[in-house]
Amino acid sequence: MMDPWGGPEGPLLVEAALLLLETLLIRCRMSEMLQELPNVRQIKGEGLRRWFISDDLELILWYDDEKKLNGFQICYDKLAGTRTITWKMVNTADGRNKSIIISDGPYNKSRVYSLVERDTETLEENLRDFILKRLKSHGG
């Protein structure tokens, strides 16, 4: 039986196989990072909405009329039954603004933080920092 890696083509085959593997690894990593969806449907009277997706995470951002972020929703574990965490600003009875996080049940704060930290590398730095700070400051 002939060795497919032997002969004059052997080094070229090895180099091609390594290049293919590197390309696949890069593509896998890219699918983990959030990518912004173009042409997201905007709802009249609700301000600007942006939507980002990755393999296991979705991030929806809501902005007020002055284009200031006033809410976000993180959808995670999409492959195992989607879970959600929503942050938003609300007006209290005494007229003050308060930041709250609402989840669809108990969640592992450090795990969600790690998922979001990993997948948001493509976001604008100030936006990423804002989201991570809110996740860290609220209980889980």
The counted number of beta strands is: 6
Structural class: alpha+beta
Query: What assembly state would you assign to the polypeptide chains in this entry?
Result: single chain
Largest sheet: 6 strands, antiparallel
Strand content bin: 25-35%
Radius of gyration: 21 Å
Low-confidence stretches: 26-30
User: Termini distance?
Assistant: 60 Å
Mean pLDDT across all amino acids = 82
Instruction: Write out the strand line-up for the largest beta sheet, numbering strands in chain order.
Output: 1-2-3-4-5-6
Portion of residues within helices: 25-40%
**SSE order, one letter for each helix or strand:** HEEEEEEHH
Shape: elongated
Write out key terms for the chains shown:
alpha+beta; elongated; six-stranded antiparallel beta sheet; 140 residues; 6 strands
Describe this structure in words.
The chain has helices spanning 10-32, 109-119, 125-137, and strands at residues 35-36, 49-53, 57-63, 69-76, 83-91, 97-103. With 140 residues, it is of the alpha+beta class. Strand 3 and strand 4 form a beta hairpin. Helix 2 packs antiparallel against helix 3 (125-137).
How is the secondary structure organized here?
Elements: H1 10-32, E1 35-36, E2 49-53, E3 57-63, E4 69-76, E5 83-91, E6 97-103, H2 109-119, H3 125-137
Antiparallel strand pairs: 1-2, 2-3, 3-4, 4-5, 5-6
